[in-house]
Specification:
The protein is of the alpha/beta class. The protein has two domains: 3-176, Rossmann fold (3-Layer(aba) Sandwich); 189-363, 3-Layer(aba) Sandwich (Rossmann fold). The chain is 27% helix and 34% strand. The chain is globular and about 60 Å long. The structure holds S-adenosylmethionine. Residues 24, 76, 209-210, 215, 218, 236-238, 241-242, 256-259, 262, 279-281, 297, 299, 310 line the site of S-adenosylmethionine.
C-alpha cells in the first residue's frame, strides 16, 4: 500500500446512504457497530455518539431524526467523519468522559473494550453525565470482552437496564438515567522510570499504549539511538516514551499521534520543547517537511484486529519524510515481517538488536 493509498478516503455504501472509510479508521464491518446501528430506537430529540469510528451509528441516529453529536479520539476516524458529517453533525475531538453534563436525550456507545477497563468505565461515566434525567444509554459489546461487567457498572451509574439482543457473543442493552451521575474522578496517572542514566517522570491518560511503564520494545529502541540525533520525528509517539529521553539531545522534536488522549499525554510530558500533532500518520506535517532521524514503535492493532496497513504507512511516511543520509529506527515484534517493507525502500537495512523485539535501522541515501 502506498502512502497516497493509505491516506485516500473510500466512499462506502451503508443501509440508507453512504459513509467514508480509510485505512486505519475503526467502525466498518464491525458487528458491534452493526448491531447497535440496526436496533437502537430513537428517544427525545438529541443524541451523542460516544465512540463513532467512521460513523455507522452516527448515521443511524441521524436517520432516526435525532439532532446528533459525535465525539471521536482517532484522527483517522475523524477524517472520515468530517468528509460526510461536516454540515449535519456536531463533531468533537475530545475525551469520552469530558462530556457536557445533562446535554442529551440519548447516548450510543460501542464499548471501547480494547482500550482497557479504566477507559471503558470512564466512557460510561461520560455517557451518564451527558444524559438528561430520563435519557437513555445504548451500549453494544462482546461478552468475551467484559460486557457483563460494563452492563452492571452502567446500571449502577444510571438505574434500570434491559438486555435487548444477544447475537453469538455480542450483546446490546439499553438503560435509563434515573439518578444524578457522580462527579468525574481524577484521571491523570503517573510513573517514574530510570532509563539510560536518566530518571524520567511521565504522566498519562487512560487508554494510552503502555501506560505505567516504558514498553520493553521502546526501551530497546532507546538504547541504539545516536547521542545527537538532530531533527527528530517520532511517528505514533504515544505519551512520549521515545521522545522524552531525547529532549535536550535532539535539535528539534516532532511527535505525530492518531489518538487524542495520547496527544494530550505527550504534550504534558514533552512541554514546549516539542511539537506534538494530532495526526493520521504524517497527515498533519506540511508538504516537503523532512527530518534527519525518524523513530517509531508502530502499532499492529486497530480495534483489536492485527493490521499491518498502518504500520506499512509508517514505513512509507518515514521514507518520504527522511532527509538523504538520514536514518529510520524502528522496533517491532519479532514475528512481524518488516524486512521486505524496509528493503523495498531504503538503501541499507540492518537489524541492530533482537530480544523480546527486534530493532532495525534503515538508511536513506
Ligand atoms: C506501539 S504504540 C507506541 C507508542 C510510543 N511510541 C511508545 O513507544 O510507547 C503505537 C502508537 O501508534 C499510534 N497510532 C496508531 N495509528 C496511528 C496513525 N494512523 N497515525 C499516528 N499514530 C498512530 C497509537 O495510538 C500508539 O500510540
Amino acid at each position: 500500500m502506498t502512502l497516497a493509498e493509505y491516506h485516500s478516503l473510500r466512499k462506502t455504501p451503508v443501509p440508507g446512504g453512504y459513509l467514508y472509510t480509510k485505512a486505519g479508521a475503526r467502525g466498518l464491518a464491525d458487528p458491534a457497530y452493526e448491531l447497535l446501528a440496526q436496533h437502537l430506537e430513537p428517544h427525545g430529540e438529541s443524541a451523542l455518539d460516544l465512540n463513532p469510528g467512521i460513523g455507522l451509528v452516527t448515521h443511524a441516529l441521524r436517520q432516526r431524526g435525532l439532532d446528533t453529536q459525535a465525539l471521536e479520539t482517532s484522527r483517522a476516524s475523524l477524517r472520515c467523519l468530517e468528509a460526510i458529517f461536516a454540515d449535519s453533525v456536531r463533531l468533537t475531538r475530545g475525551l469520552p468522559w469530558e462530556t457536557e453534563p445533562d446535554s442529551t436525550d440519548l447516548v450510543a456507545l460501542v464499548l471501547p473494550a480494547n482500550r482497557g477497563t479504566r477507559y471503558v468505565e470512564l466512557s460510561l461515566l461520560g455517557a451518564a453525565r451527558a444524559l438528561r434525567m430520563g435519557g437513555r444509554l445504548w451500549i453494544a459489546g462482546s461478552k468475551d470482552k467484559g460486557f457483563e461487567h460494563y452492563f452492571k457498572l452502567a446500571q449502577e451509574l444510571l438505574g434500570f437496564g434491559l438486555l435487548v439482543k444477544r447475537d453469538g457473543a455480542l450483546r446490546l442493552a439499553v438503560l435509563e438515567k434515573e439518578k444524578p451521575a457522580p462527579d468525574l474522578p481524577a484521571v491523570w496517572q503517573s510513573f517514574t522510570c530510570h532509563i539510560q542514566g536518566q530518571t524520567l517522570h511521565f504522566t498519562y491518560l487512560p487508554g494510552v499504549f503502555s501506560g505505567g511503564h516504558i514498553d520493553s520494545g521502546s526501551a530497546m529502541l532507546l538504547r541504539v539511538l545516536p547521542e545527537q540525533p538532530g531533527h527528530v520525528l517520532d511517528i505514533g509517539g504515544g505519551y512520549g516514551a521515545l521522545s522524552r529521553p531525547l529532549v535536550g539531545r535532539a535539535q528539534s522534536l516532532t511527535l505525530l499521534e492518531d489518538d487524542w488522549p495520547s496527544v494530550l499525554s505527550a504534550r504534558q510530558n514533552l512541554g514546549e520543547k516539542a511539537t506534538v500533532l494530532h495526526s493520521d500518520v504524517d497527515e498533519a506535517l506540511t508538504p516537503g517537511q523532512t527530518f534527519s532521524t525518524i523513530i517509531s514503535n508502530p502499532p499492529f492493532h486497530v480495534g483489536g484486529l492485527v493490521v499491518l496497513e498502518t504500520a506499512t504507512a509508517f514505513v512509507e511516511a518515514a521514507y518520504a519524510r527522511l532527509e538523504r543520509g538520514g536514518n529510520f529506527y524502528l522496533v517491532a515484534n519479532r514475528f512481524l515481517p518488516y524486512e521486505p517493507l524496509l528493503e523495498a525502500r531504503f538503501t541499507s537495512v540492518r537489524t541492530l538488536a533482537v530480544d523480546s523485539h527486534k530493532v532495525m535501522q534503515a538508511r536513506k541515501d
